[in-house]
């Protein structure tokens, strides 16, 4: 059942041949090959794993393979876990098919007609047909056409349902495999009996009982029920021919009966406390496994089978060796496993007759002594395992005469190598590790002629004496690691001609001077984790190929001899500081010096290392690795280098690190293995650059004074091709002198500060960086003559002014950085003959405007930074430039709504609107790189003081006491929805309409209203005299103080209350509130009747309205939904009312209309209501509360001069006035 590797290899060979010899095409998604069993027939391998759910599967008979359909003997189908549905005619006409395998094709069932043409099928294998989330049902009708099936396998599927007449449907079945399906029960119809079924595998399911199923397979020879939940098993009568039973990992406590034909029994991992009698009485038992139970020796009975060859009773509770079990089979027994028990002693002679014993495993017990007479002298035992006991003594004759090849004495308490080992002449491998051995005597191990491997690790050895292993002609491997060895004698490994491998790691060895001179055949040496200080290559055998000396104290390597043949050397985690050519053997192929203190690689260090393939330098202190150090003169292999964790500097001598290096061809053979992790530090700004992103321009060398090649004036003091680095500056150049970078920084500790002298900068500089130096002014021609200058940075120098022509004649300049200074303006005269400038950084200055001349002098300018300046509005010149990117964050930009009235009056020098930031950003947001950080700023206090308000002036400050801030993105988002949309506020709050129809209609209505007003006024005048005769004082008809109104004397222009309300509620307010109060002789001033007209979009406060309110003793605020949605949202109403409420001598009476909740008002209105009186209009105590809140009606002060005027206007003068 496990021939798959060989079978698949055979398939690969056959697939290499032509699948079609007669021109027929193989079916789609399939590969064709000759059948491995019958080459004249065909094998099809179909893979549908890449198909989508919508792909239609074509039956094999529908392809161009028709001529070969009847010749297909094997068909293997793979779906790789995808859902798959076979068409009913998929297998049609495959009458010669013998072997069908379907793997990973998830489905719920097979069609009844699917297998109807497969009458010749002998083997059907179904694997992974369903998952834990699906199910699969195999019906009897599907299996009926497969009457000649001999092998049926359904494995690794979940939630499967099998027919109870399975055995009836397949009368010729011989092999049944239902393993790894999680089947809880297995039922069959009582009349269904499989007379030819020989092998059944039911392992790895969830079966608790199979007795009913066993009665239907009387001819069974081999059955596996391993890894189920079976607790009882009775098979004597149902399976009279059973030979092999595998019931591992179940819950069996006893076996009632087994047929005498059983020869192999596996009951490991059950709940047995004794070997069942049914097993003991098997006459022909050959192999018995009862490991991992709880069997005790006190329950032992005799195994009557004389044929027993293998007994595994490991992992039980045995305290003594169960000799009773072995009385009948001792001479036949070949393999006895008793490891992991509690055996403390083995009596003498208990195995004296076990002459056929080949393997005895007593490891992990409690043995203290292994006696002389335990094993017979003529025993065939070749493998004796006594590891993990408490052995202190191995008696001298305990191993005499044995033909052992492997002896395991590890993890015991031995203090010396037992002399008994020396008597085993055929011993090849001995394991004495993890003991307490402190000394190895001569003439013990050297007597064993066939000894191949010795393990003495994890002991207490302090030295390796002379001739310990002498004459061990077959010794290949020695492990003495994890001891306390500090001394190696000269002849320790003498006469060991085949000793190839020695491991001495984790000891206390300080020197290898003479200890290895006699190990002439040594190939591999491990001395890691020792205390070696000086590594002498001459002390190593010439035959040595691999040396591992990690984690020592090596700080010096001696000169390498020419005859040494080392190929691999590992010296990581040592203290090596320098490597020169003579210290590295020329024969090396791999050299690991990682995690040392290597600071320099000598010149031509690798020149003669022609065999070198791998060099590990990571974790050192290397800053520069010149090309000369890694160049190999006659290299034949590509060198792989690791450089991570080094403080590398991107130096111009390291051109070999570039992926597309232009240096000599031989250096291209170097491959850096960790370019993503390894980095070098840029010498100018100290940022780290991964080597995979390293470019040629990043490799720079520092200099103080240097002359370019072919310079003829270097000997003179003033030479344009000689570069001298100024004081307080750092200068760098590349290897071809195409790059010359000068970086100057200020020193804050030096006082007084000296002004930087620009003329000292090298003339050939390609990049100049002045940061923090003192440079308050740039004079004319400061940088003249620097024809190669491409980038100029002047940052944080306190620069306040730049004279004209300061940047004169800089034809190569592309980037100019003037950020973080104190500049106020640039007019363009500074940039004469600088046509190539494309990047200009002006951020962090004090600019508030930009001149057009600057852009005219810089025609190629594409990138401009203006963030962190003082711009309140967008410079108009930006609307006509060809900039690609600009920055504007950190400026106090003022945002306002567009003034459409000005659209008809603008000219070239005036904007369409007063503050144009919002409109400009709405059209150029893609141009601004920091658009998300741009903010609108409004100093509310300053706006009112200077009468220069915007739409944001009405918002309360949210930054300190004066400033309101809003992101420009939020402003533009609400621009047309709330911020700049005029609120309906009656006749006075609407903007004029441009529609001609609307104007005509309005004009007609106005004429009609004028006529009605004239009629009304005439009617009022006729009745006015009669009214005044009945009253001492009439209510005011006009309280306006504006121009054109009656000029009333100041003492008479005093009102009891100012009534503020919505234009839409005017009729209700006059009828229900104002008229009753006027009847009671209250003088009232009404907002829409007596006040001035106002506009909702006018960003100015009416002085006339404020004066009217100041002349009133109290304010009656009628709060309705209309008032809150219209009047209150206008700037002039909100501001005038807030000013009135701040006057502590005034009163505010809030009358709450229907549907107005005082708790849901905005902050400004809520603050007013919290400090003053509020009355609900529907309250039954409304008039009582109102009268108590109104001011007393005090008489006007007497004034003779004004009485006549009063009488002329209002009628009879009251006596109080007279």
TrEMBL record:
Domain of life: Eukaryota
Membrane-crossing residue ranges in chain numbering: 996-1020
Membrane topology: Single-pass membrane protein
Keywords: Glycoprotein, Leucine-rich repeat, Membrane, Receptor, Repeat, Signal, Transmembrane, Transmembrane helix
Protein location: Membrane
Main location: membrane
Protein name: CBN-TOL-1 protein
Organism placement in taxonomy: Eukaryota, Metazoa, Ecdysozoa, Nematoda, Chromadorea
Gene label: Cbn-tol-1
